[in-house]
Amino acid sequence: MTLLGGRYRLVERLGTGGMSIVWRGFDEVLGRQVAVKVLDGTLASDPAFRRRIRIEARAAARLCHPHITNVYDYGQSDGTPFVVMELVDGEPLADVLARDGMLPWQDAVTICGEVASALVAAHRHGIVHRDVKPANVMLTDAGAKVVDFGLSALIGESDVGPDGNLLGTPAYLAPERLDGGAVSPAADVYGLGLLLYRTLSGQRPWHVASMTDMLRAHRYAEPIPLPPVDGLPEEVAELCERCLAKDPHERPTSVEVAEALGADTVRPRLDDTAVLPLPPAPVPAEGVGFRRRAQAALVGVVLMAATGLLWANAAHSPGGGTAGSGAAAAATPTTPSAAASVSAGPAPAGAVACRVRYAVRQDSGSTFRADVTVTNAGPKPVAGWRLTFAFPGDQEVTESARVAQAGQRVSARGDAIPAGGSTTLALAGRYGEANPAPVGFALDGMTCEMSVADLSAPPPTTASAVGEPDNAGKGGDNKGKGKKGKG
């Protein structure tokens, strides 16, 4: 079978997910093996699923990172959408854990550091994976790769689908997600903490007998202390405990986790054209000296059916609540200027250059009003500043002075913000399909820490979770195990 006029030849069926069939394929033009995910024929006529897989492909293609699977192409064959991805040599971490029970602590820390590095890249682009678990981590000779962004969403979007359900794996579901609210990077950090606990101990931090018990444990039960691991630095055990905090505000950021586990995640600067540089590949931390040992288990070709449907069917506005993140953009839009107000004193040395709070005030389903509050977290005043950010959707600014928009990219200029001071920009616009929160805020080229609130929506109601207690060995959207073959 061939796709796209014969360019891609489907060689071997590798797995079936909830909405897609994954194939090992061959690119006849470039002469390379690829993974091809084809929307299941029964869903190909559904506009919602077609839109999901298209948005997934576009978003995942932005996440070029050594520990995230590459997306090469998107197309349609006889009306059926498909995504062409990198075919990876390796083995799912879930299979390794099922066979070995646990990993040497050096390997566990290295793998989780690489996963954290991948999440930093996603969070900087305003994307939350929402399904961090062993089945979605592939171990390769080049390091770990995070796969299957099929359940991912934009920071600030509502975490509850139109049917009132949550998407995710209950065994790795952050407790705040059970309350609905806004999509937050802290949920990925919680999943990363569970991943670290599992790889270090060979078990989960609770003993439960059912999915209901699992969800109750996430919300109410304190984790069982990590069993002693010979040689494990105490700070790693403490980090794991912090990642599993019930309160998302008490968890470290993905940047902190990556750096603590040995991944170099120097915060990049954005220039005026504002395309975010790739984060550097993770390197061992000085004080820990982690070094990946050769893994004899990593043999054959296994499809990592990565990047599922990204940010599933976004409705109008971001959901309620707040979401902390270091978001930095692949695109660059921004907003208007307005009154400035003075806040607390300057931020300590080493803090991010600015903080941005994006608050939706009104959303009619086609128009919106929002406030963008920018705080200068640096030790010096900022004069003649320029704020940039990007709209992930089709939003268009309709009212605002001193704002320029080109496609999804926006920029706004202002006069001065004192050290520790803030200014609020009033923004109004319209949109067609969806109104997700903007991403990639930067002040004079320096990445801003971002939070999102939806002040136009009623408080979220408790949602029910959809998924299996722990579908280890199964991907969220690639539930068939990868097959090994020649490479």
From TrEMBL:
Pfam families per record:
CBM_2, Pkinase
The annotated region (Disordered) lies at 453-487
Residues reported in the UniProt entry to bind ATP? K37
UniProt keyword annotation of Transferase present? yes
Ranges where the Protein kinase domain occurs? 8-270
Where does the CBM2 domain lie? Answer: 347-451
Give the Enzyme Commission number: 2.7.11.1
Q: List the coiled-coil residues.
A: none
Which principal EC class is assigned to this enzyme?
Answer: transferase
Q: Which InterPro entries match?
A: CBD2, CBM2/CBM3_carb-bd_dom_sf, CBM2_carb-bd_dom_sf, Kinase-like_dom_sf, Prot_kinase_dom, Protein_kinase_ATP_BS, Ser/Thr_kinase_AS
Alphabetized UniProt keyword annotations: ATP-binding, Kinase, Nucleotide-binding, Serine/threonine-protein kinase, Transferase
Instruction: Please tell me whether the keyword 4Fe-4S is annotated for this protein.
Output: no
Q: What is this protein called?
A: non-specific serine/threonine protein kinase
What the entry lists under SMART domains is as follows: CBD_II, S_TKc
